[in-house]
Write a structure and sequence with these properties.
The structure is a single chain. This protein is an alpha+beta fold. Helices cover 32% and strands 25% of the residues. It folds into four domains: 92 residues, eRF1 domain 2 (Nucleotidyltransferase, domain 5); 145 residues, no CATH class; 121 residues, Aminopeptidase (3-Layer(aba) Sandwich); 72 residues, Ribonuclease E, catalytic domain (Hypothetical Protein Ychn, Chain: A, 3-Layer(aba) Sandwich), CATH 3.40.1260.20. It has a six-stranded mixed sheet, covered by helices on one side. Strands 3-2-1-14-15 form a five-stranded mixed sheet, sandwiched between helices. A five-stranded mixed barrel has the order 4-5-6-8-7. A hairpin with a 5-residue loop joins strand 16 and strand 17. Helix 7 runs parallel beside helix 8 and helix 10 packs across helix 11. It is globular.
Amino acid sequence: MQQDILINWSPQETRVAVVENGVVQELHVERTLERGLVGNVYLGKVSRVLPGMQSAFIDIGLERAAFLHVADVWQRPPEGESLSAARQSQPVVPIEKQVFEGQSILVQVIKDPIGTKGARLSTQISIAGRLLVFLPQDDHIGVSQKIPAAERDALRTRLQALASAGLNGGATGGFIVRTNGEDSTDDELADDIRYLRKTWARIRESSLNKPARSLLHQDLSLLQRVLRDLVGESTQTIRLDSREQFEVLQAFGREYTPAALPKLQHYRGERPIFDLYAIDEEIARALGRRVDLKSGGYLVVDQTEALTTIDVNTGGFVGVRNFDDTIFRTNLEAAQAIATQLRLRNLGGIVVVDFIDMVREDHQDAVLSEFRKQLRRDRVKTMMPGGFSQLGLVEMTRKRTRESLAHMLCEPCPQCQGKGVVKTPRTVCYDILREILREARQFNPREFRIVAAPAIVELLLDEESQHLAGLSDFIGKPISLQAETAIGQEHYDIVLL
């Protein structure tokens, strides 16, 4: 499977597309203004200590001073005891005995600034890699609780051996295996250990050479994560359309991912890089509810708070031999398309697929086998524990790694408030008539004025004019109409004059 990675960079947004054999398989988007500070490491300066609040304000070079609470101040654990165990057994040392005004201190942001509140800090540093989290101040080896208990001990033993083998020059520190490191090989874990230790060494060196209020480490940008996380043996090229960012990525690759450097290319073509594979059209389709299949069938994708449902339909596909064959071929093509859509849209959590009902068991087995085969290509962990349920549904889960494409690029419709439908003009007209009747029983204005969308006003003047006139006679008050183009179809105001 040949893979190409295309990167479209602009000062406000970075977009990455992973293309396999000419077909877009993954999309990643990062916006400059939406990048938070969480994970950033600073050399801060203590500007104020507040013993009464057991906290301190730290100047890290931002508009507002950041906040450090005593609970987030790292204390060296006793020999042979992990940090978590020490927190439970050791008494908390007052903050005024740990920090003082004017002190330079290494801190990490654990919560972004909100409103008038500054960022929240911790002095316990943790650096996230692709598979591991590095704890330079702790020697603990841990495994994510989301990984099955039966596999944790084996993973912990492997990581302990790899971490010990990599020790040189007095390097120390603990590691935690992230959830997506569950199926990783020893080579992949060793690569992550080397990357994380090298990153920490650079942070320590910068803390000695840079002045207070300096940013020492920033969580990797999407551009850098491409080299660290997305490049594999099947990757043929990594093409980037910005000369400046190409040089930045080259420097990062030379230091941390030298194996990816030969694949990195600067794209100089006249056509926009995403036009090479019609990626903007793919993004538009990935935001739509309906996905057409080449055979004439189609998928309907509905993303809700609790789960995502995908419905398979034959559409205009009539098959070549019989109805069973038509259904089977549509489901086979749908199995491939669904796996692609999960990656493109980055859909996570519970996914329920309603394939078209198949009578023959061999057809069912073939569709499930194809679906599992396509899901194995996903770099995000997926689980499909069973086959078809009694209702003919296939249930699966896909790990949530970031916001879905729709949540990142879209917002609820201001007209329907995310429902996906709006009331018909006639329904709104009847709502208005009932509301006027309700208001007339409570108030005694000189006149009622309806302010509504043009379609509503037109209907009230035309087909519903008799009902409007009858209501006016019944309440004994005149009713006037005012059309406003800026008002949505469901929205209206009743003004008492």
